[in-house]
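Fig. S4 source data, part A: sequence.
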Amino acid sequence: MALKIGGQVKRLNASELAYQEFVEKHLKLNEPVVITGLMHEWRSCKDWVWENGEPNLDFFSTHFGKSRVQVADCGQREFTDQKRIEMSVSEFISQWKGLSDESSCNINNVHDGTDRDLLYLKDWHFVKEYPEYVAYTTPLFFLDDWLNIYLDSYKMHGVPDENNDVQGINCSDYRFVYMGSKGTWTPLHADVFRSYSWSANVCGKKLWYLLSPSQSHLLLDRNMKYSVYDIFGDISEKQFPGFKKTIWLECTQSPNEVIFVPSGWYHQVKNLEDTISINHNWFNAYNLSWVWDLLVRDYIDTKQYIEDIRDISDDFEGLCQRNLAVNTDKKARQRIT
């Protein structure tokens, strides 16, 4: 089934875009945009890229090789996401370099389940792990970030010691580095918490397909529970009767370009070249209502699932909150671009 493309994502140069204009036309209106001219001084654009524009993989192995990261196998689906495996950055780089020629040959097979070589490093908490290495500076347009400012200072996750007592702090964030060879991709999704996101291409090109929130119901199955996994896969019209009505925006993101993805916009992304990107999820006053509405719906669902044990629970509300936190964290790990 061919996608219906209704237009392209607008492009603006940062030198010609005032912050208030970005607020009025994109944050308030919840409209996507690609912004150029934001990455000239970034250290990552020098250290992480060869002069010919290809990723400097040896730099990562040398300086960050021992880091443990999550890697998605783009050829294997696991529930609503791709199968994840853990490995070191050095191991990932070795596989990438060893399989690069084969992966490029098998690019057309990535969606049919026959290709097992397209590995995509996702959700690397690089800033948290290497705070002294300033790879980039968050652009002015995205600095009003309540999510990551909060997580930087709040003791969110405890670390059990040898006696299984929680002592330390292991606070997460939503600032990530992604690395993938040509052909790697991310399935269709809307971002965690219905947050905003921005994604900057340090090198390589990405192809984006985005769908307005006004059409998101068309992606759901007959039971309004699960969304389409792959917009280029074999989509059953009986199971997803509304999908054929969807009209998409398309965007090819080049190196040194930053895309802003607003709240509730479903998107699917494919790397057209070997690519490294920096990504943030974030929210502030302009999209807080989206976040709150989602959390309230999830809370109601969580409460209904365990309603039958209310009478025998000493702290039913506390149990609801803990289950909500676990479920939200699980969704976050499954659905970040």
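Fig. S4 source data, part B ends here. Confidence is low (pLDDT under 50) at residues 101-116, 333-337.
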